[in-house]
Automatic annotation (TrEMBL):
The keyword Repeat applies. This is Pentacotripeptide-repeat region of PRORP domain-containing protein. The lineage of its organism: Eukaryota, Viridiplantae, Streptophyta, Embryophyta, Tracheophyta. InterPro entries: PPR5-like, PPR_rpt, TPR-like_helical_dom_sf. Belongs to the PPR family. P subfamily.
Length: 190
């Protein structure tokens, strides 16, 4: 009977996490708050995944205040932040136009020993593109490659769109050539 109760609890938790994410994507924060309150009332254990979904929902709409509050709450409960957490926070600051906070988030990620992987670099590159800071975007892209971290198709798409916005067709051509070489070498799937 005990294992059945655990299974039911984990299914309810998974469903609640999914529903929080769905409400967040639809910008239905009142419904999201209701589900969060329901989880607290039933004493569902909050996991990194739960916090990430809530942080992501606020980040997607650029609600830095609630995103920061949730992140601080996560840290107060000694929940370990992961790469997704920091990608969401970086995205949230970029969406809120708080680009100066992107840098401090990257520094905090390093302090927490979050691996510098494709996802983290992609989030920073995207933030630079949103800020129209193409010099910093290029610097981060170079650093990414210097650290043997392979860009993915989405990374290239972000950069191409940033260059397209500025009419920098020579840069787009160079990126497309680089991307095709990586595909030919099997280092990137199209």
């Amino acid at each position: 009977m005990k294992s059945l109760e655990i299974l039911e609890l984990s299914q309810k938790l998974a469903l609640s996490i999914f529903v929080i994410g769905a409400y967040g994507k639809k910008r239905m924060h009142d419904k999201m708050s209701s589900v969060m309150e329901y989880m607290r009332k039933l004493q569902f254990p909050w996991t990194t995944s739960t916090y990430n979904n809530v942080i992501e929902a606020f980040a997607d709409v650029g609600d830095a205040k609630n995103m920061e509050y949730t992140f601080d709450q996560m840290r107060a409960e000694d929940m370990k932040a992961d790469t997704k957490t920091f990608c969401c926070v970086i995205n949230g600051y970029a969406n809120a136009g708080l680009f100066h906070k992107v840098i401090s988030s990257v520094q905090l990620a390093a302090k927490f020993e979050i691996p510098e992987n494709t996802s983290l670099y992609k989030a920073v590159i995207s933030a630079c593109a949103k800020a129209d800071d193409l010099v910093e975007m290029e610097r981060v892209f170079k650093q990414m490659k210097d650290k043997q971290c392979l860009p993915d198709s989405r990374t290239y798409s972000i950069m191409v769109e940033a260059y397209r916005k500025e009419g920098m067709n020579d840069k787009i051509y160079y990126l497309e050539q680089e991307k095709q070489k990586m595909i030919a070498n099997g280092a990137l799937s199209d």
